Amino acid sequence: MSGGEVLLRAEGVGKRFGGFVALQGIDLELRAGERLGLIGPNGSGKSTFVNCLSGDFAAHDGRVTLAGQPLAGLKPHRRARLGLARTFQLPQPFASLSVLENVRVPLLFGGEAAAATPRALECLEEVELAGKAARLPRELTQVEQRRLELARAIALRPRLLIADEAMAGLSHAEVDQILALLLRLNAAGTAVIMIEHIMRAVTEFSERLLVFVAGRKIAEGAPRAVLALPEVEDAYLGR
Ligand code: ADP
Ligand code: MG
């Protein structure tokens, strides 16, 4: 579901760690409601790019706007309030808080304390975890932990959800659960950036695919066309 207007615009985003250039010259224009896939070998800068968008890292170079508003200097919770949500490759729940309390946290920080409990329950319904609201995160299965991570991300009704390897380590059927969930969120209007190694899922999901190699964007376009490019095949075969 893509609308017309540009939701996220990144221009020349770059990030260094000491002398190591992890990301360089990344441009991206994402439309409201778009489904974008981001692929690339391990270490190609996908998570670093997400961290620069979310404010978890300060980018060294470039400019990012969300619905026209510059994000530079805004902390992650400020960006979340503006509608940008992300999940972490390794789920990061608060271990000592219940499943429900974990989803209440972003609502408390996001200025929606009054409605935190009903909204958190609604999110748990959305990811089919309402029956486990009182459990601790460690009592959940792996796919349930992924769904909790998504429930926490969608609590503030983001305009953009970035899912960083939300399907890693899951079975075929579990991948389909997460895929269906992301498609449902997208159908309700949320733009989604899916970072994924599971080609079947990312190809089926994405309207457009970006490919990162060694911190640069090397290809962009319709999934099947992009995957057929020799330079993309080379990147994956390590040639
Ligand atoms: P991907 O998500 O595509 O697998 P990352 O963005 O995690 O790749 O990493 C890109 C590169 O940046 C890797 O070489 C990684 O080791 C490096 N890197 C990522 N985060 C840090 C960090 N916090 N400190 C130092 N190097 C980092
Ligand atoms: Mg990563």
UniProtKB/TrEMBL annotation:
Annotated GO MF terms: ATP binding; ATP hydrolysis activity
The record ties this protein, via Gene3D superfamilies, to: P-loop containing nucleotide triphosphate hydrolases
A Pfam family for this UniProt protein? Answer: ABC_tran
Q: Is Protein transport tagged as a keyword?
A: no
Record's PROSITE patterns?
ABC_TRANSPORTER_2
Which CDD domains does UniProt cross-reference here? Answer: ABC_Mj1267_LivG_branched (cd03219)
Tell me where in this chain the ABC transporter domain is found.
8-239
Q: Which residues cross the membrane?
A: none
Which keywords does this chain's UniProt record carry?
A: ATP-binding, Nucleotide-binding, Transport
Query: Known InterPro entries for this protein?
Result: AAA+_ATPase, ABC_AA/LPS_Transport, ABC_transporter-like_ATP-bd, P-loop_NTPase
Any one Gene Ontology cellular component term annotated for this protein: plasma membrane
Its recorded name reads ABC transporter ATP-binding protein
Q: Say which species the protein is native to.
A: Roseicella frigidaeris
